[in-house]
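Protocol step 4 of 5: obtain the predicted structure for the target chain.
Materials: sequence only (see below). No template structures provided, no constraints applied. The aim of this step is simply to have a reference model before the mutagenesis design in step 5. Sequence pasted as it appears in the construct record:
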Amino acid sequence: MQAMGAARWRQDEGGGPAPARRRRVLVAGGAGFLGSHLCAALLAQGHHVTCLDNLLTGLESNLAGFQSPQFRFLRHDVCDPLPEPLVVEEIYNLACPASPPQYQANPVHTMLTNVLGTQHLLAAAARCGARFLQASTSEVYGDPEQHPQHEDYRGHVRSTGPRACYDEGKRAAETLCFDYLRQGHADVRVARIFNTYGPRMRADDGRVVSNLICQALGGGELTIYGDGTQTRSFCYASDLISGLMALMDTQSNPGVPVNLGNPHEQTVLQIAELVLALTNSRSGISFRRLPVDDPRRRCPDIERAQTLLGWRPQVTLEQGLRPTIAWFASQAAADPASATVTDEALLRSR
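Step 4 output (structure tokens):
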């Protein structure tokens, strides 16, 4: 592993100098739902952004509005060595399918993206002295026995189940990140992202919000797994992006994972009823068997984010659902097939 030279960061140095006002930033997975929102936010602040994405689940249409000399797109799979010696000050790693139908479609590639891909990006951070932010997930907690989930909770994960390629892959990626941090090779921060929603979600990604909205807009029955009493908490995309950027920008490295999500917990049935009301849909609700290893409760403890970053979400679920519904409605008007929920998405939805 190459040393960081004069730019080398060590944990006992308090996080290094303040980042420049305008920075060169690499966003791996930048054509995805959250990655594209992050690219937009960084460009709005005047940064130079390189988006790296293999377009396995990301979409070039998410980048269509980024007509700026400060933005460039590189089509590349992070499982392969990086295509060129990149010189950047910050690296955000969002490179991995994040919903069950997507990450279960090729579970071996999902695991390698989390481990080998993260290693490639960490090595790049070490080489050029860049700050590194790992987009981890609440899935590292598995089907939690502690509620709400605090970062010190070690989780309840099955290493051989159908979700393990993602759950365990993200856990392994965190291990790599903190090993780089402890050894002084890179200034690494880890965000554990809870359920997030907003415009640019894919209709076929199998998430609760996208499934329910598309079914309501299409006039079909809304599908709920189990009896609907399982809970989720949903964070709007703009809130989540502000949390990621706050974690990257904080001068004192937390040295621990930080939960980012909305602690307002609701049952899946309550969410379905709200979607029906906001779409003025007369659709009914059908109940199906709960998928294997689907968590019964999911809610973040965000005290650490509040204390270290001064961050907490601002957008209520109703406020965030309105533009999200409008997004899906516009997609359906332009291309009805794009807003159709497939049987595969339903079978594997969370």
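Step 4 remarks: Residues 1-20, 342-350 have pLDDT under 50 and may be disordered. The longest strand covers residues 131-137.
Proceed to step 5.
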